[in-house]
Write a structure and sequence with these properties.
Blueprint lengths: L1 E5 L6 H11 L6 E6 L3 E4 L6 E4 L1 E2 L8 E4 L6 H4 L2 H13 L2 E5 L2 H7 L7 E2 L6 H6 L3 E2 L4 E4 L2 E4 L4 H14 L1 H10 L18 H9 L3 E4 L3 E4 L4 E2 L3
Parallel strand pairs: 1-2, 1-6, 2-5, 6-7, 7-11, 8-9
Antiparallel strand pairs: 3-4, 10-11, 12-13, 13-14
Length: 227
């Protein structure tokens, strides 16, 4: 079973690494990181790189396709080479999956037309523009298409997928061995639970990270004045 994780400049690290830690442990799995060119590919903050060990052309027919998200998806959804690879890989894949705004990339390739899908909560309206039927659920299965919401939900998706492929016992074992037992200090992990002012801040200025003492800093470190 070959699992291909797509890499491209500006991908979100946990979108790729979170599910990788789970699905790479499927029985008989061969997991490859694939990009247009082999070598290091930098994340959305530019401070960490994963190594693509295969080109897209070298991975034409993976069993599982995983597309991580990004805060700047415009270059990717205009990249016909990447979209063509996704269409080709999807033609024979058993599962085609995404995390966060990776679903926008799948949708831009025409793979989610009329399908229920999820994405980061700030990108659900964008997902609808590309023909998908957006839902705020954390993990969504529609046939062989599996989409996960924002960043951390990729781990959940990985466990769901392992359960479908290898059975509940295998998925439960992986959850136990990775000690995936979230106990966050705040109950603010969705727009329905987070304080209204925090949600409003992000709706008004998506893509900017509050930086204590400096104002707001975008994901590449550029500082803008505090509001």
């Amino acid at each position: 079973m070959q699992i291909a994780i797509l890499l491209y400049p500006g991908f979100t690290t946990l979108d790729a690494v979170g599910p990788f830690e789970i699905i790479s442990r499927l029985p008989g799995a061969e997991t490859v990181f694939a990009a247009k060119e082999t070598g290091p590919v930098r994340n959305d903050q530019g401070n960490l790189a994963l190594v693509a060990d295969r080109t897209l052309a070298e991975v034409p027919g993976p069993d599982i396709v995983l597309v991580p998200g990004t805060d700047d998806w415009a270059p990717v959804i205009r990249d016909e080479e990447t979209l063509d690879w996704l269409r080709t890989a999807d033609a024979t894949s058993t599962w085609t999956t995404s995390v966060c705004t990776g679903s926008l990339i799948l949708a831009a390739a025409g793979l989610l037309d009329g399908r229920r899908a999820t994405s980061h909560w700030l990108a659900l309206d964008e997902l609808k523009k590309y023909g998908a039927d957006p839902t705020g659920e954390r993990v969504v299965f529609d046939g062989k298409y599996v989409t996960a919401a924002g960043v951390s939900s990729g781990i959940d998706m990985g466990l769901h997928l392992v359960g479908r492929i290898a059975g509940d016992r295998h998925a439960q074992s992986l959850q136990l061995l990775t000690e995936y037992d979230p106990q966050p200090p705040y109950d603010a992990g969705s727009p329905e639970k987070a304080p209204a002012e925090v949600v409003a801040f992000w709706r008004a200025g998506a893509g900017r990270v509050p930086d204590a003492g400096q104002g707001a800093r975008d994901v590449r470190g550029n500082v803008t004045p505090r509001r």
